[in-house]
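FAQ

Q: What does a record look like?
A: Structure on top, sequence underneath. For example:
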């Protein structure tokens, strides 16, 4: 199914009997009109071009529109044979043009060219592969511009064309090579591995591509292992097995030291074990590597409070609050901090503010009740 909508107008000119001739093994049939793309208004017949003023190239160009967009045209087969008779090298010429257009991101024109070639030969593996690569490339471009729904539609089209290219006879080695990379991007490692294995057999002479495929598989295996380590670490921490989670996180961070949420998770695990200084150091690493400031400042403040660094804890919580002024978790921790600093009235104000933002907060009412009870006892 085409992705872009065509925009053209064809007119049909009757062939005079005297122009009937043979083009090699192909014979022009005067009964079948010849198409030409409209660049003239259709108001009057004398505004239409005369056959004498047309070149074969103009007629072929119109027929290629039919190959691309009108597969159910009554005279489709006749026009296809006409093109192949007039331009026997059309596939090589247009394929090169289509690839250039795709590389310059002229996706609509590239699609029209490749669809025209597909109309001429629906089973040509290179044309099917070129369409697959085109749709994949355009999907990436759309995704980068935030058009995820359109990108998903194009990825579906790309997968269909890859599937068609993979079942041609004889098999095309490059179809397996590029389809392998396509499935790697879709995180389908096992499918990609199977396609690359087939490519290794079909493309034995192409050592450069074989090396690229092996390198990509190795990196994907490594990434899958690291993703598994991260997930295992998170699961262990949730289950209260922080030490086992830390072992996996440290292994993960050896290979991915720049991943901020790895450091954040390590800090979280160490905080749960009351390892306040190591936890604080891990959260600082997360912050330095671009981590979420609000949550990281909050976690660092908790560690600083437990280490008795109350001024540092206040500075951290105030930074967090400047980034998210209605975050009840931060406001509540400011209340806890005020209590630790011996300022119950200030703490009461923070917990009351929490209830203004979130009347269903489960912690604030308990803390307010505790402060009020202590104040009554003191009086």
């Amino acid at each position: 199914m085409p992705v872009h909508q065509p925009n053209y107008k064809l007119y049909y000119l009757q062939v005079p009997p005297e122009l009937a001739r043979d083009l090699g093994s192909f014979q022009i049939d005067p009964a079948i009109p010849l198409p030409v793309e409209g660049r003239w208004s259709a108001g009057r017949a004398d505004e239409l071009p005369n056959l004498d003023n047309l070149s074969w190239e103009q007629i072929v160009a119109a027929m290629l529109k039919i190959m691309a967009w009108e597969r159910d045209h009554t005279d489709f087969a006749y026009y296809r044979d006409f093109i192949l008779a007039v331009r026997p090298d059309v596939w090589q010429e247009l394929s090169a043009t289509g690839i250039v257009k795709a590389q310059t991101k002229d996706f609509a024109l590239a699609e029209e060219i490749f669809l025209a070639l597909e109309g001429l030969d629906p089973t040509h593996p290179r044309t099917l592969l070129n369409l697959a690569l085109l749709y994949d490339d355009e999907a990436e471009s759309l995704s980068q511009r935030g058009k995820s729904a359109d990108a998903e539609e194009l990825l579906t089209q790309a997968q269909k064309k890859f599937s068609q290219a993979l079942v041609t006879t004889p098999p095309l080695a490059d179809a397996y090579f590029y389809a392998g990379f396509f499935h790697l991007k879709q995180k389908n490692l096992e499918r990609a591995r199977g396609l690359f294995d087939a490519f290794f057999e079909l493309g034995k002479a192409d050592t450069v591509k074989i090396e690229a495929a092996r390198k990509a598989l190795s990196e994907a295996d490594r990434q899958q292992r690291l993703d598994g380590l991260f997930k295992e670490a998170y699961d262990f921490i949730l289950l209260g097995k922080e030490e086992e989670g830390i072992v996996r996180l440290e292994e993960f961070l050896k290979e991915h030291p720049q991943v901020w949420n790895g450091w954040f998770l390590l800090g979280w695990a160490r905080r749960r074990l009351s390892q306040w200084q190591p936890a604080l150091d891990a959260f600082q690493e997360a912050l330095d590597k671009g981590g979420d400031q609000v949550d990281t400042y909050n976690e660092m403040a908790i560690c600083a409070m437990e280490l008795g660094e109350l001024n540092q804890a206040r500075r951290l919580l105030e930074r967090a609050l400047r980034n998210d002024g209605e975050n009840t978790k931060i406001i509540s921790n400011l209340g806890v901090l005020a209590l630790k600093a011996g300022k119950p009235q200030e703490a009461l104000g923070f917990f009351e503010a929490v209830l203004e933002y979130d009347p269903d907060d489960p912690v604030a009412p308990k803390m307010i009740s505790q402060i009020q009870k202590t104040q009554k006892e003191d009086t």
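Q: Is there anything notable about this one?
A: DSSP finds 17 helices and four strands in the chain.
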